[in-house]
Structures are given as structure tokens and as C-alpha cells.
Write a structure and sequence with these properties.
Layout lengths: L1 E5 L3 H13 L4 E5 L11 E4 L2 H4 L6 E4 L6 H8 L6 E4 L6 H9 L7 E4 L6 H12 L4 E11 L23 H4 L2 H10 L4 E7 L11 E7 L4 E7 L1 E13 L3 E5 L4 E4 L4 E5 L6 H17 L7 H11 L1
Parallel strand pairs: 1-2, 1-4, 2-3, 4-5, 5-6, 7-10
Antiparallel strand pairs: 7-11, 8-9, 9-10, 11-12, 12-13, 13-14
Helix pairs in contact: 1-8
Length: 305
């Protein structure tokens, strides 16, 4: 198996780690921006789009800054190989419009949102189906401190801090709205408010609040970059109970009777990346259209843009 990678940052390293576990003999290639780019053991550097035509890749992994996804996707389409693209797919309405108007014959494409494979999300999705009750209210929250995200790196220089590269809490933490769509379907309507609230030295939005309108309930999504005591949870208030998903502790509780419904044994993020990669490889092998295709990913983006 030959895999081409665009963007060799921290996210790509997670994908590479699980890919080697699933496919030990995988051959990795990376399109680099300069011949002075660093080398990585086990990865062959390529430097021009013309060089790519010499190889027959099984798929392309795009884990570059979201701001350049559109250009890369467009320039790679003639390779006619499946693409796995890190979330978010795009960062602006203009890029979405350009994609929708392109009329291109795109290959199989999957937009990677590894939270769909989180054991807590998998459990709650099944639980809601097997234990139905009318939902009255949903709230999702994710707050953490951006300077703590990447130890040893200047947080002001990473893409999260730079609006032009696709930074901003609404795009960086798109998982919350994405998993709500995964659980409940697309909302009837949505409104999103974003702002820079804290003293963080960034020009991207560090605070976002969204309201999603579903058939019988509303969902509120609150995101921020400035909370020093990390909090990430989902609360589903139903007629017969209240379900509380705590992503930090890795457990789901029924608050109505204080019953622990589920606890994750392994909180390693690699669990979600490995399941996601296995899912994508199966789609490629069977030429099966994956979930979270560009159309679905764009629908999620429109909720926040």
C-alpha cells in the first residue's frame, strides 16, 4: 500500500501511527513545500505535483492547514484516488461555493472527524436508539486553554491562533457540532456567534456559541480556547431522564437516578484514530461511499459559517 500525505504535523503523526499498526508494510510519501523541509524516517519526500504522477497511490491523506485544502483537493483530483481530509474541510463560504460549483468528478472522499469513533459517542448513539424518550434540550460544551495544547510550542504561532490559516475555536472544535449532527441529523436552522474575548495573543476567535434548531428541541454549543480547567461534556435532557456525557472522565451517567451507564477503559485518543482509519480503509477496499462525505461536511460547516 502506498499513501501520499500532505501536511506532516501533529495530526498526521497520529494517522501515521495507527496506519502502521493496521498496515505494517505501508509505504509513505509526503508532498513537501521545500527541498529544505525536514525528513522523517520511513517517509519519502516529494516536492512537486508533477512527481506524484510517477506513483500509484492507494489514497491521499490531507492533514495540512485547512486554509489550503481547497487548492490541494483541486490539484490532486486528476490522481483519481480516494482522499481522507482532516476536518474542517474548508474555512470559508467562498471555498464551499467554489467546490459546489466545480462540477468535478471527485473520487471517494472522507472528511475525518475522529470523535464519531469515540466510545462515548458510539455508546450514546446506541443507547438513544435502544432507550427512546422525547428529547427536550441538548447542550454541548468544550473549553480548554490553548497555550496548554501543544507543550513546548509557542501557541501564538500555531494555526489555531491564526484566522487566515483556518484557526478559531468554531473550526478547531468542530467536533461538537459534528457529533450532534451524527447523533440527531442536520438541524432545521442554526445561528452562531463568535468573538475574541480573552487576552490570548491570537487573532482568531476564542469563543463561540451556537444554537441548533431540531424538530422537537434546541441544542446549544459553547466552545472556547481560554478555560484553564478543561471541561468537555454533552448533556441530553429527556422526558424520562438526563444523560450526562463527560469526555474528560470518560463516562456517561444518568443524572436522574445517578446511575453510571458506561465508562471508557482506554481514554487514549489513538483508539478513535485507529477505528477511523480502519473504517476508511474498508471504504476504500470496498469502494463504498463513506459517511461524512464532502456534502455532509459542508452541511455541518454551514451551521457555523
Amino acid at each position: 500500500m502506498k499513501v501520499l500525505i500532505l501536511g506532516l504535523g501533529s495530526i498526521a503523526q497520529k494517522h501515521i501511527h495507527v496506519l502502521k499498526e493496521l498496515e505494517p508494510k505501508v509505504q509513505l510519501y509526503a508532498l513537501r513545500s521545500s527541498e529544505n523541509s525536514d525528513t522523517q524516517k520511513g517517509v519519502t519526500n516529494l516536492f512537486t505535483y508533477e512527481e506524484l504522477r510517477q506513483y500509484k497511490f492507494n489514497f491521499v491523506l490531507i492533514s495540512s492547514p485547512s486554509s489550503i485544502h481547497w487548492d490541494q483537493i483541486f490539484r490532486l483530483q486528476d490522481l483519481n484516488v480516494p482522499m481522507m481530509i482532516e476536518k474542517p474541510l474548508f474555512i470559508s463560504k467562498d471555498q464551499i461555493e467554489a467546490f459546489e460549483k466545480s462540477n468535478s468528478n471527485w473520487p471517494l472522499m472522507y472528511v475525518a472527524c475522529n470523535f464519531r469513533f469515540h466510545p462515548l459517542i458510539k455508546f450514546i448513539k446506541t443507547y438513544l436508539k435502544e432507550n427512546p424518550s422525547k428529547i427536550n434540550e441538548v447542550s454541548a460544551y468544550c473549553g480548554s486553554f490553548l497555550p496548554d495544547w501543544r507543550p513546548g510550542k509557542d501557541y501564538t504561532k500555531v494555526y489555531s491562533a491564526i484566522r487566515e490559516l483556518g484557526g478559531g475555536v468554531h473550526l478547531d472544535l468542530i467536533h461538537e457540532i459534528d457529533y450532534l449532527v451524527y447523533l440527531f441529523g442536520l438541524p432545521l436552522s442554526s445561528v452562531s456567534k463568535k468573538r475574541k474575548s480573552s487576552k490570548l495573543e491570537i487573532n482568531s476567535f476564542d469563543s463561540s456559541m451556537s444554537i441548533l434548531e431540531f424538530n422537537s428541541f434546541q441544542a446549544q454549543v459553547t466552545l472556547n480556547y481560554f478555560r484553564k480547567d478543561t471541561k468537555r461534556n454533552l448533556e441530553i435532557v429527556r422526558e424520562k431522564d438526563t444523560l450526562y456525557v463527560d469526555f474528560v472522565k470518560g463516562e456517561i451517567t444518568n443524572l436522574f437516578n445517578n446511575e453510571l451507564l458506561f465508562k471508557v477503559k482506554d481514554l487514549s485518543i489513538f483508539v478513535t484514530y485507529k477505528e477511523q482509519m480502519a473504517y476508511f480503509l474498508e471504504c476504500v477496499d470496498k469502494n463504498k461511499s463513506p459517511m461524512n462525505s464532502p456534502n455532509e461536511a459542508i452541511a455541518v460547516l454551514k451551521c457555523i459559517l
